[in-house]
């Protein structure tokens, strides 16, 4: 891990969402990943205290379980809003594509398009770590049964993420057991959905039988996120 | 931060407690700090998956808000239980004192006696980070109004912690706003209790007027922790 990139994990207790603030220690240029509307004041205060210049507000996908703070953060800081092009969001500043690279000082953030949970999921790869949103979760993965989810695409995205080096830290979008991070090496062995070389047929059988209820905030979250949280 | 010491933060949603698992990558010797009884199966499974040898189970103090897993972890792994000598715990393996040093491979964990919240608080100092229990919290500190708490001692302990280098990562015992870590440099500026050179008189005035309710689990937690969670 480069000593110049600092990562700060933040948590929203209401929606169990992890937000990440990352910055280059040299230039103080910063990005926020998966912000939560209700936490914008907390996060803006932290950004101000740390003396950071927010350059990017990035979402891993159009969320169904919480509303982003992208718009209010842009209003307050002038940052650029980054979403994947498949989101078709009219309010994003940048509609990113696979392998696009964003810089914080000399530190690069590489975008991987990792669809499956939705058609617009992206993972963010930095030196030594990956932010996996709802694609790879710790010992788990996101559901694929709504919002243009696709089980085959999820299987491929998870395997693409597993191609990263073993010691890459995995920072997920959520966790429901109290884990805050994992590593690619661990997930390659112990991920219950694809670990230990699980076949696509076994994976599909699991995904087809999850029987999950709809997220309780999907009706307000998806349109709210399409509007960058300016509601 | 040394590349050989890995730190994994864990969270208990019921009591909002942070548990830390740290290990030496070379030897796989590990320590757990502030374990939670209800999470012992999760934590033992993680220790096993990571191939770690648990050497120490350490508590920052005799907690009033949750019960430790020290005893069950010792039973399962043969680890040593470390508490401060003031805890007078009959079940600890080691009653530690200020400046005692514990090793995980070549990585040292130095104990600082940092009383104030109780008379038996210890902080654990490793290369680049400090685990502060309920002494230093993020922008805050622990209460001093029960369990032999002492406002003067807390002020001195916080200032001792503030003597660490600016870039030392602060890992607290709890946080109630969704922060997971801070740094000594930030706390020296922004800690609301002692930051920005606040005087002892101002600090004492704040601490004397917190008007907090008793922790709801104090009646079972303190005796449960004196018994190392073997209840």
Polypeptide structure, described:
Chain A is built from six helices and 14 strands. In chain A, 23% of the residues lie in helices and 29% in strands. Chain A has one domain: 4-Layer Sandwich (Metallo-beta-lactamase, Chain A). Chain A is α/β, with parallel strands linked by helices and 231 residues long. The radius of gyration of chain A is 17 Å and the shape is globular. In chain A, the strands form three sheets. Chain A has a six-stranded mixed sheet with strand order 1-2-3-4-5-6, with helices on one face. The interface between A and B is medium-sized, with 21 and 21 residues.
Overall 3D shape of chain A: globular
Q: Biggest interface: chains and residue counts?
A: A-B, 21 and 21 residues
Count of beta strands of chain A: 14
Rg on CA atoms of chain A, Å: 17 Å
The whole-number mean of residue pLDDT values of chain A reads 96
Give the N-terminus to C-terminus distance of chain A in angstroms: 38 Å
The helicity of chain A comes to 10-25%
Could you say what the CATH architecture of chain A is? Answer: 4-Layer Sandwich
Please report the number of helical segments of chain A: 6
In N-to-C order, the SSE pattern of chain A is EEEHEHEEEEEEEEHEEHHH
Q: Would you identify the CATH H-level superfamily of chain A?
A: Ribonuclease Z/Hydroxyacylglutathione hydrolase-like
Order of strands in the sheet with most strands of chain A? 1-2-3-4-5-6
- Structural class based on helices, strands and sheet pairing of chain A: alpha/beta
Unreliable spans of chain A are none
Proportion of β residues of chain A? Answer: 25-35%
For this structure, the CATH topology of chain A is Metallo-beta-lactamase, Chain A
Largest sheet of chain A: 6 strands, mixed
- What's the CATH C level of chain A? Alpha Beta
